[in-house]
Amino acid sequence: MGRMHADEHAIDTALVRRLVDGQFPAWADRPITALASGGTVNAVYRLGADLTVRLPLTAGGASDIAKERRALSALGELPVAVPPVVAVGEPAEGYPWPWAVHGWLDGSPALEGREAPARDLAEFVLALRANRADGPPAYRGQSLSTVDMATRRAIDELSRTDEVFDPAAALAVWAEALAAPQWTAPPSWVHADLMPSNLLLRDGRLSGVLDWATAGLGDPACDLIPAWNLLTAAGREIFRDAVGADDATWERGRGRALSMAVIQLPYYRHTNPVISANARYVLTELGCRPAP
């Protein structure tokens, strides 16, 4: 992983050690290990066998600590595990923002294009939608029109920097998504960032879902993105049938997956191989790039 953001704070194991030892001395004897991650908001370290430390990389991500804590406290029963917030640390040792300690969840991150439990994923999405608690607006939970300009700029940039990208195909997908009827029912609970690296698998089943700072109330279409960023064509049909997506919601979900991919690929092409590979996979599944 390279430096992803111009305003990214330098974080290393020594800093995490000082923060933990200074604020939570009961954990001073626990080893700290940096974790490889496709995440773009936090640096993640394992603390002993059953905890993780997550430190925002930028000022923009610092507010996510409180957002995630509120979202997790509002969740009802779900069919998979979510990471409990064990403690919240304060700025110190030259590190300027709050940081969090979470419980460790066993499992391996899902990988795009591999066999994935489409029905488990649909069961999770439906269970989350059924939550009736009040909540904040979800990140990415608004109309696609709010990212229209950013998406078109990204398509234009990719048309000039990625020789196998098909901008006409991308614009066609985007136009269909924008033309789809909007969600008019009350907003539902959504996770809003169901990237493969946030989905944990054990024994071929979905066992946990990470990173809840984006969660809240919004258009349920934004939780359909695994149809294109994770599943194969066969799994996509199983997922759609199990989640009961109508045509309009499916088209909006397709547009959301496209928007995320075209924005992510040029930004993370040289710094985050996990995210950039996933963006390429999405664009291939949407017919905007040839299969490798």
TrEMBL record:
<dbReference type="GO" id="GO:0016740">
    <property type="term" value="F:transferase activity"/>
</dbReference>
<dbReference type="Pfam" id="PF01636">
    <property type="entry name" value="APH"/>
</dbReference>
<protein>
    <submittedName>
        <fullName>Putative phosphotransferase</fullName>
    </submittedName>
</protein>
<dbReference type="InterPro" id="IPR011009">
    <property type="entry name" value="Kinase-like_dom_sf"/>
</dbReference>
<keyword id="KW-0808">Transferase</keyword>
<feature type="domain" description="Aminoglycoside phosphotransferase">
    <location>
        <begin position="36"/>
        <end position="254"/>
    </location>
</feature>
<dbReference type="InterPro" id="IPR051678">
    <property type="entry name" value="AGP_Transferase"/>
</dbReference>
<dbReference type="InterPro" id="IPR002575">
    <property type="entry name" value="Aminoglycoside_PTrfase"/>
</dbReference>
